[in-house]
Specification:
It is a single chain. The chain has 430 residues and is mainly α. It is built from 16 helices and seven strands. A three-stranded antiparallel sheet has the order 3-6-7. Strand 6 and strand 7 form a beta hairpin. Helix 1 crosses helix 6, helix 6 packs antiparallel against helix 16 and helix 10 crosses helix 12. The N terminus is likely disordered. It holds the Pfam family Peroxidase_2. Its cofactor is heme b. This is Heme haloperoxidase family profile domain-containing protein. GO terms for molecular function: metal ion binding; peroxidase activity.
């Protein structure tokens, strides 16, 4: 196999099996649509008397909190060290912070095992989700065994536009709107930051981020002539960019074991400093705050947990369940039917009900055309195995072949775009 150890696979499989056998480890009441669930209504009632939690979906039974095991060390070998001239820092603030604190190699280039270990140790990402994301990145956008948190085409996140990194990021620029996919747009940060005006009770939870996600989606339609919301990059990866902010950056405590993400912690993870009337972004200086406590291991953020969050997002905006793009001008957004893309394997309703299934099966079916390799080849075989384990555990329906010609109406659809590109004619910048 060569790309990851058998122990890593075992850990991932155990994580998935534990979610199946003990679903409370992921989230109580994982039925969909979540908004219609009786348990979900009870959840909102519980949270209505709890501040500063708000209306984000949380476990009905709060997860345990253990200060000793959840406190993240940011001293000694893990003290913050700013990146030097030879260190890669890219689009993902969480990965940048891991490298700045030496939980990932400080140069920003890591193996699959290193990504799995660091994201689990520091953020509480489930082994199943970590193995899925890191293997996909390393095989599709890296060397096969490792990849860069920055980089260019075929070597890292920065050059993966259209097949991993994508438009409508929470804080980073749309590639063809700004000519870069790595610049933090302060106006976008202010949109999010100002949604919680009271610093004493501020919590950028999933309820806040769901509203912000809808705003950013519409903003890309309104301002990026080449905006593309793809089957895998849109329905799965772009949602993660929003859900991960609260799920991985919130600070946990005995009082709030589900986590609270306040203004100071948000600024630290996003490399923002200064007073509210003069905020400044320093590229690549993302920092894990002092006295910051991660998710409990019993509350690991697994793939089923992630799917529940996606359903929470899409319950307020069904358009997030539909692939689409602008056709070369702003406000020309057209949906592309899931049935057309999957050659009839999924209807639009089936894709909406199972977004992770549709996105993952589409990615799996697209791999031979994307890479020119057989699914059973040495390089691709490892990724195929990981993707297949995801779809098997979720009971997904296979997609035999994909119809990427349906994306021809999207002038912004490209693979391995970035980290820079020409600004699209008619793009509107904030």
């Amino acid at each position: 196999m060569g790309f990851f150890t058998s122990s890593a696979i075992t850990v991932a499989c155990l994580a998935v099996n534990n979610v199946v056998a003990f679903p409370h480890l992921a989230m109580d009441g994982m039925t969909a649509p979540i908004a219609a669930d009786v348990a979900y209504k009870q959840l909102l009632e519980r949270q209505s008397a709890t501040r500063p939690q708000g209306g984000a979906p949380l476990p009905l039974t709060p997860p345990p909190f253990d200060a000793a095991s959840q406190l993240i060390n940011v001293t000694g070998a893990h003290a913050f060290v700013a990146p030097g001239s030879g260190d890669a820092r890219g689009e993902c603030p969480g990965l940048n912070a891991l490298a700045n604190h030496n939980y990932l190699p400080h140069n920003g280039i890591a193996t699959i095992n290193e990504f799995v270990s660091a994201t689990g140790q520091v953020f509480g990402m489930g082994a199943d989700l970590a193995l899925f994301l890191s293997t996909y990145g390393a095989v599709i956008d890296g060397s096969g065994t490792s990849w860069s948190i920055s980089g260019g085409p075929h070597v890292g996140i920065g050059g993966s536009h259209g097949n991993y990194e994508t438009d409508s990021s929470p804080l980073k620029s749309d590639l063809y709107q700004y000519g870069s996919n790595s610049k933090l747009i302060l106006e976008q940060f202010h949109e999010l930051y100002d949604m919680q005006p009271n610093a004493a009770t501020a919590n950028y939870n999933l309820d806040v981020l769901r509203t912000f996600r809808n705003q950013r989606f519409q903003e890309s339609i309104n301002k990026n002539p080449y905006f593309v919301y793809g089957p895998f990059t849109g329905m799965a990866v772009s949602q993660a960019a929003f859900t991960f902010i609260y799920r991985f950056m919130a600070n946990h405590s005995a009082e709030y074991p589900e986590g609270v993400l306040n203004k100071d912690v948000l600024k630290s993870f996003m490399s923002i400093s200064g007073p509210e009337n003069n905020l400044v972004w320093t590229p690549g200086h993302e920092r894990i705050p002092s006295n910051w406590y991660r998710r409990n291991t019993a509350d690991a953020y697994t793939i089923p947990y992630f799917e529940t969050d996606i359903l929470y997002f899409t319950s307020s905006n069904p358009q997030l369940t539909l692939v689409g793009c602008n056709e070369g001008k702003v406000d020309t957004y057209q949906n592309i039917d899931a049935s057309t893309l999957s050659n009839g394997a999924y209807t639009a309703a089936q894709a909406a009900a199972n977004p992770i299934c549709f996105a993952t099966e589409f990615a799996l079916a697209e791999l031979p055309g994307l890479t020119g390799l057989s699914l059973t080849s040495g390089v691709l075989g490892s990724l195929t195995s990981v993707l297949s384990s995801v779809t098997k555990n979720l009971g997904c329906k296979a997609i035999g072949s994909v119809n990427t010609t349906a994306l021809a109406l999207c002038p912004g659809f490209t693979l391995y775009g970035g980290p820079t590109a020409p600004v699209a004619p008619g793009a509107i910048q904030s």
